[in-house]
Amino acid sequence: MLAEPERFSGTGALLPEQPAVLAAAMDAYLAFDTSGRVVAWNPAAEATFGYTHKHAYGRSVEELIVPPQARQAARAELASLAGGLSGHTLGRRLQWTARHADGHDLPIEMTLTATDNNGGRVFHVFAHDVTTAQRASRFIAVEAAVARGLAEADSSTSAAARVVEAVGVKMGWPVTELWVVDEDRQILICAARHVEPGRQLRDFCIDVLEPGVALPGRVCADGTPHWIPDLGTDAGSLRSRAAARLGLHVAVGVPLCTGRHVLGALCVYGDRVEDPEDTLLGLLSGLAAQIGQYVERRRAEELAIELARTKDEFLAMVTHELRNPLMVITGTTALLDEDIEDLPTDERRHYLRIIVRNAERLSIMAEDLLDLARLESGHLAINPTSTDLCEIIHQALNAAAPPPDKNLTITVSLPERLQLYADPARLRQVADNLLSNAIKYTPAGGTVTITVTTDDNDHHITWTVADTGIGIPAAERPRLFRRFYRASTALEHRIPGTGLGLVIARTIIERHHGTITLSDHTGPGTTFTIELPTKPR
Ligand code: ADP
């Protein structure tokens, strides 16, 4: 005879002849008849599936623990078992996914057996939750995949991509990101992002963050793991709310550290996290330590290569850019020295102007090299004060003196005044560099256009310098702000230059919390766009 419900209520007690062993069993035990009605449900089943015995007894086992997508197959299996067949499940040890009372799915290992008695056939299930075991093997697989990714990658970029893919795919997180700190520019850059197929990220998908901002920024700022259990209520972060709008609910971020130095952050975003907080943090922190060591080793190697390359480029630049004006100066001085008595005054002046122009070129180069050294050592001083950008641009225009034979048209569209909080001398350096480049790289008859506008509440300035000159090939644009980099167009036209001005300009603008970018261009020429805040931070 099968147990009555009231004899089980709240206790998970069992058939009189087997209470002790099944009530004390660590495995979930449940039994059901040929119609699928639950006839036994022990305390471990209560703990595993979340239903009390009282709640489960007499209900359909399918409705209780079979996920909707598996119900049709389960019904067919029960029909064949009820008909006396052995089906696919009877007498076997199976891995299966069950549905918990709170709606989440859990992996279980189970056996199904049948007994026949007077009341008909009864099926017995012994099951246990294998989430922990599966998690452990998943963690081992992630660690192995990350280690393999790091060992096989041939650059930091491909290592970052392999790491986020390994973590995202193996752990099943919808979004995994690896952020690294760019110390030069004092920002965080998303080195790689893995997104599960079919998920759109819209405004959540940004690649640059300021320190302290959003989850990656917070993790890097204080160098400790962060756990956001509910992104929708994370009031301090716009990005958290953008994630919540995409259906992402929880997020975890751990720092990539070596010693006390924070190199970046590994962040994952999920719909729900079934792992206990501390186990997951343990796994992620272990991975982050591994990645941190790799990043530091790789940075040291890349720095050594970069220094060697810089040394070569520096030597090439100095040899060319220093020797040319020096040769002009020494040659012209020798010529003047020899013929000074015979040369008419006009010609003497002409030669003197050549000497002055070339000496100025050398002096600008010396200043740029000094600025570069200050920039590399972090000592490029910025002294902001209330400054009129329009006045600075007018000063740069007055000093520019484009060669008259070039016949350039220079068009300017500026408000009368535009006050912002900035270092006037440094902004003048930027204005001089962009204007002199536009003039230098634009052939005769071209046009240079400078515009400055502000947003509606005067908080942001957009300053563009456009020309119709030789342009910069799209493929080379990402390298443009590297020191000593010169575009192929400049080299083909044999236009002199050092490749230093834009690096310095970018540092100055970024120290003013602004950005300088090369805009996409249709038609010939180049457009630089600078965005600057007007107010101090
Ligand atoms: P320089 O002009 O002394 O070489 P910059 O750092 O100012 O150094 O510029 C770096 C490179 O960017 C230049 O060598 C040139 O190839 C390219 N460039 C900069 N501005 C322009 C422009 N307006 N038009 C075309 N190319 C430009």
From TrEMBL:
EC number: 2.7.13.3
Keywords for the protein's UniProt record, in alphabetical order: Kinase, Membrane, Phosphoprotein, Transferase, Two-component regulatory system
Keyword Protein biosynthesis set for record: no
Entry's localization field: Cell membrane
Catalysed reaction equations from the record: ATP + protein L-histidine = ADP + protein N-phospho-L-histidine
SMART domains per the UniProt record, alphabetical: GAF, HATPase_c, HisKA, PAS
Domain annotation PAS: ranges: 21-67
Classification via InterPro entries: GAF, GAF-like_dom_sf, HATPase_C_sf, HATPase_dom, His_kinase_dom, HisK_dim/P_dom, HisK_dim/P_sf, PAS
NCBIfam families: sensory_box (TIGR00229)
The protein, known as: histidine kinase
